[in-house]
Amino acid sequence: MIEFKISAPGKIILFGEHAAVYGRTAVASSINLRTTVKFTERCRSQYLRNIIKIEFPDIKLSFSFPFYVFRNHFFSDNFDYPSVKKNNQLYSCVSDFIDLIKDSTDKSNNEITKEQKLSLQAFFYLFVYIAYEECINVKETSLHVHLSTELKVGTGLGSSASFAVCLSACFLHWSILQKGNQHCTFNKDELDKISKYALNCEKIMHESPSGIDNSVCTYGSVIKFQQKKLVDMLPHMLNLKILLVNTNIIRSTKDQVERAARIKNVYPDIINPILDCIGDVSQNAWEVFTEMNKIADKATEAMEDYWFEKLSVLMNMNQGLLISLDVTHPRLEMICAMAFTHSYAAKLTGAGGGGYAYVLLPPDIENESIDLFSKELKENDFDVTIIKLGGSGVKIEH
Q1: Which of 27, 123, 180, 384 has the fewest Cβ atoms nearer than 10 Å?
Q2: 161, 98, 158: which is closest to 128 by C-alpha?
């Protein structure tokens, strides 16, 4: 029997939303809210039916069906993977397979929602993709995959990327264990593979992902992203006090990206300079973070106040530019206004249109002041979480 756990962090985009889709600079960080997958492979049994059991309780999905149905569909002579890969047809093949099994499996499988179907598509896409790429021995067996998350779905904290990274790492780790190798941690080459697999999966869910989310969820830390590539990382966590505030407005990242693209297509001469400005704001923020990272242990109170003021101004600029892209929401603007009355800075994070904002708190703030502001937010039906930036990326739990 093979059994293990893998986890991956969520992410927060600190600066550069939407502009990153068009190659401009963005700054993002992993956060201390994680997605965890528990994988179990049981040996073939002549007494028990061999099944694939998938449990994603956070979206109320519990799904099981005979293993041979999956194996015969994707790993028989009738399935030409090289041709499917060349013609970019794997996603459509997986979609057809899910339509087939949801109508022919156990009666205990209830009618699946759009969100559940998308999760199943991502699961089987990665399973088949990585099985072929990493030469997994898809033998008659029983698999149980249980995935849970501390991230709220559809709120801009990288829940889909964390999901994709977790599953990519899971199948890669399984392939290594199958070959009889000891494997306790992911090396750089393996992390690069995981990020690539997850990005391709993200295209199912978001069509044109920037690549930020899968990068942060794979490598962790605080990253600089430019021209759709990870170009720099800060090795140490930044000691910033951050409040994460949930509007409780669910929105689609894909819809928000398309919304920004439409306004860009209609007014390119206006929107392109705005995207350039967002990239410049992000670059300036990165320079502040880099300075903080270099001398954090020697920072004086005056330095911390200076960094707070610079980041606050840059956050306000970035939020104003995002308003120009028409990707905000009245609830997000309410959070920013409430923060402003306390002399704090706030901005949306992620695709906008709902989801989360984050509030940067002063370095010398008292817990009593945090509690008071949090209470005000909660009285207006916002959910509030104190988070830590940076930290580990995807990892094997021991």
Answers
A1: 180
A2: 98
Which runs of consecutive H residues, i.e. helices, occur in 103-139? 114-133
How many whole angstroms separate alpha carbon 103 and alpha carbon 108?
A: 11
Q: Is 397 exposed, middle or buried (0-12, 13-18, 19+ CB in 10 A)?
A: exposed
CA-CA-CA-CA torsion sign (245, 248, 252, 258): negative
Task: DSSP for 208-244, please give it.
Answer: S--SHHHHHHHHBSEEEEETTEEEEEESS----EEEE
Q: What is the three-class DSSP state of 40?
A: strand
- CATH code, residues 2-222+393-397: 3.30.230.10
Q: How confident is the model at residue 108 (pLDDT cuts 50, 70, 90)?
A: low
- Binned at pLDDT 50, 70 and 90, residue 11 comes out as very high
Amino acid (1-letter code) at residue 267: Y
- Predicted TM-score (pTM) of this structure: 0.88
Q: What are the CA-CA distances from residue 202 to residues 91, 318, 342 (Å)? A: 11, 25, 38
Question: For residue 33, what pLDDT is reported?
Answer: 93
Each residue of 323-365: pLDDT tens digit?
999 999 999 999 999 999 999 999 999 989 999 999 999 999 9
Q: What mean pLDDT comes out for the span 117-129?
A: 94
Domain segments of the chain: what residues?
Answer: 2-222+393-397, 238-387
pLDDT, tens digit (0-9, with 9 covering 90-100), for 95-104: 999 988 876 5
Three-state secondary-structure class, residue 356 = strand
Give the whole-angstrom CA distance, residue 79 versus residue 75: 6
Are the C-beta atoms of 190 and 173 separated by less than 8 Å? no
- Give the DSSP H/E element, type plus range, for residue 251: none
pLDDT of residue 107: 44
Q: Do domains 2-222+393-397 and 238-387 have the same CATH topology?
A: no
Which are the contacts of 105, defined by CB distance < 8 A and separation ≥ 6?
63, 64, 65, 66, 69
What's domain 238-387's architecture? 2-Layer Sandwich (3.30)
**Angle at Cα 123 formed by Cα 120 and Cα 125, nearest 5°?**
105
Query: What's the CA dihedral at 62, 158, 123, 109 to 10 degrees?
Result: 20
